[in-house]
Amino acid sequence: MKKKLVLIGNGMAGVNCIEQLLKLAPSRYDITIFGSEPHPNYNRILLSSVLAGDADMKDIVINDWSWYEENHITLHTGQTVNAIDTQRKLVSTDGGISVPYDELIIATGSLPFMLPLPGADKEGVIAFRDIKDCETMIETAKKYKKAIVIGGGLLGLEAARGLLNLNMEVSVVHINPYLMERQLDQTAAIMLQRELEQQGMKFLLAKNTEQILGKKRVTGVRFTDGHEEQADLVVMAVGIRPNIALAKSSGVEINRGIVVNDFMETNIPNVYSVGECAEHRGIAYGLVAPLYEQGAVIAKRLAAVETEGYHGSVVSTKLKVSGVDVFSAGDFTDSTDTRSIRLQDDLAGLYKKIVLRNGKVVGAVLFGDISDGSRLFKMIRAGEDVTGKEQETLLGAAVGGSAKSGADMVASMSDDEIVCGCNGVSKGAIVSAINDKGCASVNDIKACTKASGSCGGCKPLVADVLTYVLGADGVKTVKEGICGCTTLGRDEVVEAIRSMELTTSKEVMNVLEWSNPEGCSKCRPALNYYLGMVWPEEHEEERESRFVNERNHANIQKDGTYSVVPRMYGGVTTPEDLQRIATVAVKYNVPLVKLTGGQRIDLLGVKKEDLPKMWSDLDMPSGYAYGKALRTVKTCVGSSFCRFGTQDSIGMGIELEKRFERLNTPAKVKMAVSGCPRNCAESTIKDFGVVAIDGGWELHVGGNGGTKLRATDLLCKVKTEEEVLEWSGAYLQHYRETGKYGERTSEWIERVGLDTVKAALDKKEDRDALNDRIDKTLSLMQDPWKEIIEEQELNATFVPIVSETTESVLK
Amino acid sequence: MKRIHIGNITEINEKRARVVNIGSLEIAIFKLTGGALKAIENRCPHKAGKLSEGIVCDHHVFCPLHDWKIDLEDGLVQAPDDGCVTTFQTEVDEASGEVWLHIEEERILAS
Ligand SMILES: Cc1cc2nc3c(=O)[nH]c(=O)nc-3n(C[C@H](O)[C@H](O)[C@H](O)COP(=O)(O)OP(=O)(O)OC[C@H]3O[C@@H](n4cnc5c(N)ncnc54)[C@H](O)[C@@H]3O)c2cc1C
Ligand code: SF4
Ligand code: SF4
Ligand code: FES
């Protein structure tokens, strides 16, 4: 028979203790949990973020119903335990359930402290503690305007920030002359106040509330100095007290909280307590990090794993939702036996302070930049002696150079030391997620262990653990797939498409077990390209996987308008075409007409809904000045007019552009043809450049004039125009078949090597085979604008489905 | 709350969006695989990219300008970026496929 374990309180501390127990001894106990709230276990910390609109209720569930089921835990929600019979080892609830236990954990948390003011029981006076309070605030904000938060501590300010986000006017009333006096010193508090005032918060400091005004519902508050302030909602956030009524009536020893020893045992055998309700060495903690450390001790005890016990915690806090970074830890108030170092810059809004006692850092306050927080917190916890290097301690490595790096610090941490306090994730757990589960980024680790998933304060430390395990730049060669959805590389994916005859993205993702069901913005366009390249006939173009430019056949600009570039083969146009372009530009009020770097006319600033009509009026092919496709073939004047020209570069350019227009390629492809070695068309920085020489042509490849300038390599010299076309086709198709999606020919040729490319194109029969394949693909290409203009359904997607004026809607 | 008729569900393609303009408020309505509709403000919190033009993967859209990833269910920007986009409730008549949007009047006025 399994032993029976009962947990009273379905909150953060209790359930975390159970989670830790399940990891150590998954099937040792029959577990029953009681919770007064109607919800499964959720992250109370994130209520502030829910209120501030940064998270949704459903995002803050830590363990959903299925978790309890999977772990065979009996959960009774909406049941309040009202009696513990410690003699007969039985707990019973107000709903009439009673359950026997062998081991019992009391984790009833705490109750918000409500000031016993006259009128405190009026409608609209609430605390900030649970989902219900959060919902009340959200509902109230829909109907009322003015809120008062009593309490200028962490919780009060987070409530106030949330209410501001809910568009309420908020005044924070605080009894002290400055804010967050328990977490900040006066300097930091004033900086914080200044910042919050800018965000629209109002403050009534050094004010004592005397009475809550109103009939049934609150209408305002009165202070002891006679001043009155109007309010439709009053949130009291003045503190908490351990929830001990149940323990007290059951004969468990209490002081301020439930008294526990280093093993979290109460005075009653087999009864433990953890969380905000417990008092250890005179302290009841109100933050999760220590509570999780406490829970670990109970878990080890119950799993019969050796433990040293709990010796108390140093805590750190930060404000989650205000948009200002504030951090404090340890003992940061000055006293006669401490000395401190401060750095204050009011203009930049920066403040740093460390407090030293006997050469050791015992406390710190940071404002504005809290990136040193985890480093300092670690020093405080370790009780490190910094005598002689105090300045560096404050300022970090920047000054002395010898301060420890993050990774050094991680090295000195023990495995069970908690890195993420919110979710109780230890260094050891993160290290094994990296080693065993292949996590390679902070995000991976978050997904895998929840570390840094709540308040995010430990992110820098998590990153340090990552660096510590994976080496300086995180470059333990984790296998990199084509995107985050798969570990398979380009070649493996293309091979699978070929060998398993996969013809849709969906199939590829299914068969190759993509981790995201519908992929991401990286792999979807890539798969669409690879499928089209391998199966030009079978694969059906997936419009929804195309990047906007290729889906709308126009280039999206920063303001959401588009640019239209009519095709102009070889850069040559006619007076008639120019006239038509001008007429269309006038008709559609095109704000800017510009020549592109590729010798084409760019009509910029076109509204999406005008695109089909414009193309129809232009009646020219689309210019593809935006896609991963052949963009333009730039030409010089050549022998037609130029006195140096040896060949007809214009004619050659037009021919190439007509042959390859609309061809999809791994990345954009630009070409150029120059009529003589003076190279006026700049052919030697193009993906494929042709330079005429006396009696023949030089073919240049792999150039790029973009971000990474690269001059071309000479592929070969040929004699006739037919040969230029033959080589260019073979070259392009070889690139299409072996390039990675998004990889320009300049990068591709450096990756695969010029010699490999030369070898692949060396034999005539190979070039012919490549040309056959490119011809097949080309024969299937259609002018996208003809298609869009002719197909009503496609055409319709360019216009909004509804456009109504404000007046007609509000009528 | 205003309930505004915006057309039929067949007018939106799967994994694509259509735009609805209401006063100066621009909303993108997405149809997810399986047919569910999601409506969000057509404005990326980064640099106001038109989310209606993004690539849709399950219930996320990737902004076409700088590839931020946004959850269409709650409008939250996904890590490593952060921010959020206003979401709107849609209503679909099962039988006819007609679609309505629910918008708070303040939103229409304010924008
Ligand atoms: C808005 C807010 C923001 C916070 N932000 C932070 C933060 O940034 N960082 C941080 O470290 N901490 C923060 N805290 C504090 C943190 O949430 C608490 O320290 C932590 O939740 C305490 O865990 P617990 O299990 O002891 O209590 P709780 O999580 O409160 O769980 C106790 C549960 O027991 C239930 N219960 C009580 N009595 C009974 C009974 N007789 N029978 C059955 N069930 C019962 C209660 O309903 C409750 O659900 C925040 C708290 C709030 C309210
Ligand atoms: S490259 Fe030669 S042919 Fe062409 S314009 Fe320049 S000089 Fe004339
Ligand atoms: S160079 Fe940069 S800024 Fe200029 S058009 Fe190209 S992408 Fe835009
Ligand atoms: S505007 Fe959306 S990502 Fe930049």
Portion in strands of chain B: 35-45%
| Most strands sheet of chain A | 5 strands, parallel
What distance lies between the first and last C-alpha atoms of chain B, to the nearest angstrom?
15 Å
The helical percent of chain B reads: under 10%
Poorly predicted ranges of chain A: 397-403
Major beta sheet, strand line-up of chain B: 1-9-8-4-3-2
Q: Structural class per helix/strand content of chain A? A: alpha/beta
Beta percentage of chain A is: 15-25%
Explain what the structure shows.
The complex is a heterodimer of chains A (about 800) and B (about 110). Chain A is an alpha/beta fold. Helices cover about 35% and strands about 20% of the residues of chain A. Chain A is built from 29 helices and 37 strands. With about 110 residues, chain B is mainly beta. In chain B, about 5% of the residues lie in helices and about 40% in strands. Chain B is built from 1 helix and 9 strands; from the N terminus they run βββββββββα. Chain B has one helix at about 105-110; strands spanning about 1-10, 15-20, 25-30, 35-40, 55, 60, 70, 85-90, 100-105. In chain B, strands 1-9-8-4-3-2 form a 6-stranded antiparallel beta sheet. Chain B is globular, with a radius of gyration of 13 Å. Chains A and B meet through helix 19, strand 37 and helix 29 of A and strand 1, strand 2, strand 5 and helix 1 of B. Bound molecules: flavin-adenine dinucleotide (FAD), iron/sulfur cluster (2 copies) and FE2/S2 (inorganic) cluster. FE2/S2 (inorganic) cluster binds near residues 46 and 48 of chain B. FE2/S2 (inorganic) cluster binds near residues 46, 49, 63, 65 and 67 of chain B.
